[in-house]
Amino acid sequence: MKATAPATPNRTEPFPESAIRNRIKEFWNEKTDEEADNPFATERKNTLHDVLPVIDSLEIVKFMLRIEEIIDIEIPPKVIQRGGYDSCDEMTRHLIPQLRELYAKQDH
């Protein structure tokens, strides 16, 4: 009679939501602190700054590399909201569900 190895369940690591939320918050604070140092930021009335998001999508694309370090998945740019985000909360609410879905599709 052959001995069989016990079946091991395909376990996955839980989605690291708190680490991602913290990284988003750090990034947001870093970028908005830079904006506070911008001498043109105070002159936002009736300028291009009125219509631009606080952090544009190009900055977010670069930032995704920091998230990839956490979840070890290449993140496609399509998960980023067109144009960018006007608040940290908006960015978090938009990205977390999409990143969770990407993470769930991967074997960890």
Architecture overview:
This protein has 108 residues and is mainly α. The protein has one domain (17-38, 45-105). It has helices at 17-36, 57-71, 88-105; strands spanning 55-56, 84-85. The protein starts with 16 loop residues before the first helix and ends with a helix. The model is unreliable at 1-11 (pLDDT under 50).
Number of domains: 1
Strand coverage percent: under 5%
Rounded Rg: 19 Å
Helix-strand sequence? HEHEH
Mean pLDDT: 82
Q: What are the segments in which pLDDT stays under 50 over at least 5 consecutive residues?
A: 1-11
Largest sheet: 2 strands, antiparallel
User: Any idea what the shape is?
Assistant: elongated
- Structural class by secondary-structure content: mainly alpha
Which percent bin holds the helix content? Answer: 40-55%
Kindly report the spatial arrangement of strands forming the biggest sheet.
1-2
Report how far apart the termini are: 34 Å
Count of helix runs: 3
Count of distinct strands? 2
- The quaternary organization reads as single chain
Short description:
With 108 residues, this protein is mainly α. The protein has helices at residues 17-36, 57-71, 88-105; strands spanning 55-56, 84-85.
Features:
single chain, 108 residues, mainly alpha, two-stranded antiparallel sheet, 3 helices, 49% helix, 4% strand, disordered N terminus
Question: What are the SSEs and their pairings?
Answer:
Layout (H helix, E strand, L loop, with lengths): L16 H20 L18 E2 H15 L12 E2 L2 H18 L3
Antiparallel strand pairs: 1-2
